[in-house]
Each structure stands twice: as C-alpha cells, then as structure tokens.
Specification:
By secondary structure, the chain is α/β, with parallel strands linked by helices. The protein has two domains: about 180 residues, DHBP synthase, CATH 3.90.870; about 100 residues, Threonylcarbamoyl-AMP synthase, C-terminal domain (Rossmann fold, 3-Layer(aba) Sandwich), CATH 3.40.50. An eleven-stranded mixed sheet has the order 1-8-2-3-7-4-6-5-9-10-11, sandwiched between helices.
C-alpha cells in the first residue's frame, strides 16, 4: 500500500486535501491526522471493518477502547445514550480541547469501537485540520494515537510515517502538535467524576469546574480508557526514571559498557555527559510535555541502550508527564520521590 502524504497549512488547511482525506475515511480507509494533543489514526467510528483495521495496523489489543472524535458539540447526543448536565458544562468550558468524556454509549456505535463496553470515550479536538476532516467526512472518527501500539505517541507527521508508512492510506501533515500529550480522560459514569488518564486539561482545572474529582491509578477489570492497562509510550531502549537528578551522573558511571541517553531539563543538563536530550525547563512543564515524546524518539534514533529520565512534580500538566514516564519506564529507581 502507498501512503499518501498530504501537507497542509495548520491555520488554513487546504479544502481539497481535506476532501481527499475525507473520501478515504468514507470509503473505510485509515487516515492519520494532527490534533492539538498528538497525531491520531482515524477511521469511520460507525464502520466495523474500518475500526478493526486500526487495531490490526497498530497491533493494538481489542480490549483497549479508542476515542471517538466529533466536530460539533451537538453530536454528543447521537453517540451517548444520555448527556448529563456535567458533560454539557465541561463541553462548554473545555471543547474544543484536550478533554475526553466517558459516557454511556448509544446503540449507533459498534462494539469494536468501544471494546465491547457499554460506555464511549468522546472528544472534540482543538485543531482546524482535525475538525475540518471530521466535518468533511460526515461521520464521527475513531482515532487512537497514530503509532505502533506501546511506542511513544507521534507528535509530528514524520513520526507517523516512520511507524506506519505503507500500512495506512494517508497522513495529513499539519505541523507539530502543540500540547504533545494525549487528552485527559474523565469518566462521567462514575459516582464521582474520575480521571482515568491525566492529560492537557489538568486535575486542578477540572476540580475548579466540578468541585469534586477523583484520580484513578489502579485498574480494576477491563480498561475503560486508552492508556490504562498496557505498557504505553515506551521507547525501544530501557527507560529508568530517577527522582534525584543529582544522582544521575553516579548512576551513569555504574552503567559502563552501555550507551546511555539522558532526558534532561534545561536547568540540569550541564550536570550530565554523553547523549543528552533537553525537553524544556522545570519552570515551564507545558514545554516539557510538548517535547517529551519527540525526545524519547530522538534518543531511540541515537541507538541508546538505556534512557535515564529526571522526574517532575505531579501537579498541573506534571501529573500527565509523570503518568507517561511511569507507564513507559521499565524501572523506577528507588530514589524516585
């Protein structure tokens, strides 16, 4: 299969190219497209065979549900059995944006899209290309991240092409994702709204709107959200997460014979020797989030055996950063605090 690359202006995406991609979606094909979070691998959410192709191409377990993307808030009514008042309030405050809501699903959605669950994960992306594609397709689009399952999510079209070139119909290149981490997933079917995956909308922001929000860290039964059950976001190299950055040089010295890469902040980078990838400043964790997956991919390209990463305060977007690093890590050093 030849994968078509459609490059568009992020602020004024070509209607002709969007229509080309939308035609592929309507015919049951797969199109990778940019969102504000990461690149998604899209298919018609109502087409069983099309959604099955997503799982096949990614090597994604069938019990790992995908997010359904919409272009208008009104589409919630078609996909959810009911839309509670909290969902309406959150959609008004955070959509379009990096917040996914879990609601009871309507009968219109096939079981494969929701991994056999009676719930559905829905969001409205804050990206002109993504919204244009969904609108032009005329159907809701099911889209997990456009990468091989378990690997760092793609934040640029070149990442998608490395993973999926020749396996999908098209990639829309709309530039780099400006958040860099997947959306926050909030379960509104729980007695108390519960964050199943932290992301671009923070715990603090949700608490400010809803008053009471919980965070789920332990999986019970089938995963109700992407990113809950399986090892995710992992580079090919072994990833070790270290709590005290000042201990990293000592740890590196004990790993003689190994090619080491270090995921560093700007403030600490001068302490390290070897292959150092700076993700941003501790004073700006939004910058760190935006660069995280790209940095992991770069260190893999360097052929390192082990990646050692600093840790971050689990507040604001830092909660999402640490969620991704912990899920990617093969070892969390005992110094982690």
């Amino acid at each position: 299969m030849e994968t078509i690359l459609l490059k568009v202006n992020p602020w004024r995406p070509s209607k002709r190219k969007i229509q080309t991609a939308a035609g592929i979606i309507r015919r049951g094909g797969l199109v990778a497209f940019p969102t504000e979070t990461v690149y998604g691998l899209g298919a018609n959410a109502l087409d069983v065979e099309a959604v099955e192709k997503i799982f096949e191409v990614k090597g994604r377990p069938l019990d790992n549900p995908v997010i359904v993307h919409i272009a208008k808030k009104e589409e919630l009514k078609k996909l959810a059995k009911e839309v509670p008042e909290k969902a309406k309030i959150l959609a008004e405050r955070f959509w379009p944006g990096p917040l996914t809501l879990i609601l009871k699903k309507s009968e219109v959605l096939p079981g494969v899209t929701t991994a056999g669950l009676d719930t559905v994960a829905i969001r409205m992306p804050d990206n002109k290309t993504a919204l244009g594609l969904i609108s032009a397709s005329g159907v809701p689009i099911a889209a997990p991240s456009a990468n091989i399952s378990g690997r760092p999510s793609p934040t640029a079209a070149e990442h998608v092409m490395r993973d999926l070139n020749g396996k999908i119909d098209a990639v829309i290149d709309g530039g780099a994702a400006n958040i860099g981490l997947e959306s926050t997933v909030l379960d509104l079917t729980a007695s108390v709204p519960t964050i199943l995956r932290p992301g671009g909308v923070t715990f603090e922001e949700l608490k400010g709107v809803l008053g009471k929000v919980e965070k789920q860290s332990i999986l019970l039964g089938k995963p109700r959200s992407p990113g809950m059950k399986y090892r995710h976001y992992a580079p090919k190299a072994e990833l070790i997460l270290v709590g005290d950055a000042e201990k990293i040089p000592e740890i590196v010295s004990k790993l003689s014979g190994k090619k080491i890469g270090i995921l560093a902040t700007r403030e600490n980078a001068q302490m390290y020797s070897g292959i150092v990838e700076v993700v941003g400043s501790r004073k700006n964790l939004r910058e760190v989030a935006r660069n995280l997956f790209n940095a992991l991919r770069k260190l893999d390209e360097e052929g390192v055996d082990i990646i050692i990463s600093e840790n971050f305060e689990e507040k604001g977007i830092g909660l999402a950063i640490m969620n991704r690093l912990k899920k990617a890590a093969s070892k969390i050093n005992i110094l982690l605090c």
